[in-house]
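The material for today's practical consists of a large collection of protein records. There is nothing in a record beyond a sequence line and a structure line. Backbone structure tokens are a discrete shorthand for how the chain folds in space. Nothing more is needed to start thinking about how sequence determines fold. As an example, a complete record with its sequence and its structure tokens follows.
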Amino acid sequence: MTPNELLANAAIVLKEPKFAENVGSAARVALNMGISTLIVVGEREYERDKMLRTATHKAADLIDNLERYPTLPEALAPFGRVIATSARRGRQRGTCPPPRAAMREAAPYLLENRVALLFGPEDRGLNNEDLYPCHQLTTIPTADFSSLNLAQAVAVLAYELHTAVYEHAAGERAEFHPNLATVQEMGAMYAHIEQMLQKIGFLRDEDSAYWMKNIRSFLGRVGLRAKEARVIRGFCRQFLWYDGNR
């Protein structure tokens, strides 16, 4: 598969961008780097003319085929790998490799999986809940001033992914990761795990979110395939059925 065919499995996902011009700039960057899918999450409407002003006429098709979803889980549902961006750090956010390292890790997933690069709103970024379905978080290194324009952040990650894909595809024996469970499939699995753990008393209302975050983090790193996620769901369903029919 050629680098351009691999990049066809990548998408830029913008959560609730404030300005139409930033959507247009993101479209222009995506097209330059071989990424043909742009997704916008949220209910805000954007004027086409304002988006085209920064997208230019060459990216008009990307603007006209813009994918819209009301919520982030719906937007990320079909993706097997999600890399989120954030300037904020903290214990809950774990280790954040720079974009070059993150994109080199992401490139081998593109043969068998759709990969999303996720960006938050310009004024506040992604919150901790937004990161639940994400497999990795990356931070763009800067000097003392750590605030980049949304389109600039998109440009950095899109360029690094483009470069990583070409480097990986040029390898003599390029290896690729298998088809993984999608965000939607993993979400359904986590829901069944949570039900089961609540049933046996492991999870209580006051600490349920904490433990489920750790479970998501652990299983997200494992890289489960769709069949493996279904096996875990089947085990949980059988347990719940047995408990309800004793």
Q: What stands out?
A: The domain at 3-170 is CATH 3.40.1280.10 (Alpha/beta knot). The chain is about 45% helix and 10% strand. The mean pLDDT is 90. The longest strand covers residues 10-15.
